Amino acid sequence: MAETISLEPLAQWIELRTTSDDWANADPKLLETMLIQMQIIRAFEESVLELAGEGLVHGPAHSSIGQEGGAVGSAVFLRPGDGVNGTHRGHHQFLAKSLAFLCSDTGGRMALDFPVSAPVQQLLQRTLAEILGLEQGFSGGRGGSMHLQWLEAGALGTNAIVGGGVPLAAGNAWAQKHADPESRSTDLTLTYFGDGASNIGSTLETMNLAAAWKLPLCFFIENNLYAVSTHVSEVTAEARLSARGPGFGIASWRVDGMDPLAVHLATQAAAEHMRTGQGPTLIEAEVYRFFHQNGPFPGSAFGYRSKDEEKSWRERDPILRMAREMIQLGHLDQQTIDSMTKVVKEACAAAVSALTEIDPDGKNGKRRIRPELWPQPDFVDVGIRSDLSGTSPSGLKEQKDFSGELAERKFIDVIADVLQHRMDHDESIVIMGEDVHRLKGGTNGATRGLKAAYPDRVLGTPISENAFTGLAGGMAMDGRFKPVVEFMYADFMWVAADQLFNQIGKARHMFGGQCSMPVVLRSKVAMGTGYGSQHSMDPAGVFATQPGWRIVAASTPYDYVGLMNTALDLNDPVVVLEHTDLYASTGTGPVNDFDYRLPVGKASIRRQGADVTILTYLGMVAPALEAAADAVLDPEVIDLRWLDRASIDWDTIGESIKKTNNVIIAEQGASGTGYGAWLSDEIQRRYFDYLDQPVQRVTGAESSPSISKVLEQAAIAGATQITAGIRDAARNLARG
Fold it and tell me: Quick check: do 19-379 and 604-735 share a fold?
């Protein structure tokens, strides 16, 4: 009979319960502070639900009433340099960290006889203003209830995507761990999420990555048992969600979240673990939201919880628990608690009164938002991208103006050279991606020599695009690092689509245009390599329809250096597109000078012509020039270089169209996701009166490229298809 051996996880897994001795030995000022902070959060949330019931909260109001013990118990003594982020139910997390920040000059403590200082009153009003969508909110009203950020306080931002903020928190923790040694601290990050996010891929990917890299990151699970109406036992066989931690080698604690002191003791132990460099931790706090997913009604009103269940949990209210323990210990009496509660409720009422008024046109004293407090409509698109004020006009050199040494250079060598040069001169640049630290420079050689030169700044990642892309976003938001992320194939962006488009692309705008997001994503187009449908896409058309991103596409070695340097200067996310056809090609490029830039939003005319404007980019520039050489018309070929709607060179495009009166957009990829779809629409709206015929598009087929060499060639466009497009344009003109 086979021998069986029971295995134990390498990491500890502990359930922590407080005893009467723990309460007796606890600092009375700690207990007092936690009671005040929980009551502030409770009264604030009650005010939000009251306004929601009156229809004054536009969108959901995800109340955390009942869960205050988890947030306050974990955040009460966090340092100003510690960071937290959270999920859509995040009012309590945001307020707990903000209150800890405001009290940092008093050792984190608050007093029962003066629970609401002027800064705390301002915090309540600004937070409520943000939830109501008003200009004086922390993000100018753009974030609302689900996107609360106050970077100065270490509140990194709550998040409406379940599990979406977890990778960003890992990036903040990485930055904390790798800050300048002279200023390096033992700061840490907490990422709050619920039972639903415990099963999300991005969360689990980040647990693995954080453990592998020993990041000071605490995964704080607020297990309130329900994802909307689905009980945790229905969706996972292991309902003790702290079991996730040991599976990744993460030290984990399980506590009663309705016991704020238990949460605090577990967090203290976890913080000691992280601050001493032992890596991430996980805390599962079992809590209970007293209301439905959102709004002022209990879950029992929707049939998925019983009134008896809700009653039993309300009897375990963390505020009542704290008050009862403190009274039994003789630290205070009920009259003192009632007096504090009255002051706190009056403060929340004052915040409401500052933002609302009786509607002069309403009946029965109905309230409305004060009209003068709404943001101006022209604020709608401000801050989607940076205003380029941080970029310098010096060093801008087109190839014709370059005075350094030029030679015939291999494209991939120039990519490696400029990345090496920038890392040599900018300690904030960090390169990450799958295999970038191996194979003599990754799968294509773009990062050759960098791991040996900068072992701490070249990060070979697990195969977990969501995790390492989000980590890059968190690093960038921290402000001390500039990540360069390599995607082995452009198709893999779909795996990380949440982090690319919901998180990184929207961050600046969502949080009021106040945070930077200097992420550079290198992504290659691999059409024609025989790698098939899932390794061959051109992502330009997808990125062009997503807010926040800038898009760069270089067709020559010289341009790549200038465009990459400019991309690295920007405080925006930039996708730098590359093409496998160009990697092995040669062209004119710099030999020693890798400092020059090319301007944002400037195209290049590769061939002057009079009859038709061909707009193209990346690997289609050479085929366009080939087709133009023997065309029936005289084409003008424009290499767009910058493809996003904020950076595209309408001056050059417009002048050409006014001259030729005909346009062909030439791209290699599939027609459905093609870049030319939005571009042709924009051209026809801008220049309709100058066009002799509709804008023509040369694209690949609807299908993705196949493994079959014949079908692959049929699916992608090249010089032959551009020639056919020019002939079609000529026939249309002849028909007049």
Answer: yes
Rounded-to-integer distance, Cα 41 and Cα 260, Å:
14
Q: Where are the alpha helices (DSSP H) in 405-539?
A: 411-425, 450-453, 465-478, 497, 505-510
Query: Do 662 and 614 form a contact (C-beta atoms < 8 A)?
Result: no
Classified by CATH at the fold level, domain 19-379 comes out as Rossmann fold (3.40.50)
Catalytic, out of 32, 284, 465, 667: 465
Q: What is the 3-state secondary structure (H, E, C) of 462-474?
A: CCCHHHHHHHHHH
Three-state secondary structure along 603-637?
CEEEECCCCEEEEECHHHHHHHHHHHHCCCCCEEE
Residue 625 C-alpha from the chain's centroid? 39
Consecutive sets of 10 residues in the chain, 736 residues long: mean pLDDT of each?
Answer: 91 97 98 98 97 94 96 97 96 98 90 94 98 97 95 96 97 93 82 95 97 98 95 94 97 98 98 97 98 92 96 97 97 96 98 96 87 95 87 82 96 98 97 95 94 96 96 96 95 94 95 92 91 89 95 98 97 97 96 96 98 98 96 97 97 98 96 93 97 96 87 91 94 88
The verdict on whether 45 is a catalytic residue reads no
Question: Which residue in the list 421, 535, 578, 712 is annotated as catalytic?
Answer: 535
Within 10 angstroms of residue 702's Cβ, the number of other Cβ atoms is 11
What is the fold, at CATH topology level, of the domain defined by 604-735?
Rossmann fold (3.40.50)
CATH number of 399-512+537-590: 3.40.50.970
Tell me the torsion sign for CA atoms 218, 222, 225, 230.
negative
On whether the CB atoms of residues 303 and 292 are closer than 8 A, the answer is: no
**What is residue 228's DSSP assignment?**
T
Domain ranges of the chain: 19-379, 399-512+537-590, 604-735
Please answer whether residues 264 and 251 qualify as being in contact, where contact means their C-beta atoms are separated by less than 8 angstroms. no
486 catalytic per annotation: no
> Which of 422-433 are b and which e, b meaning 16 or more Cβ less than 10 Å from the residue's Cβ?
bbeeeebbbbbb
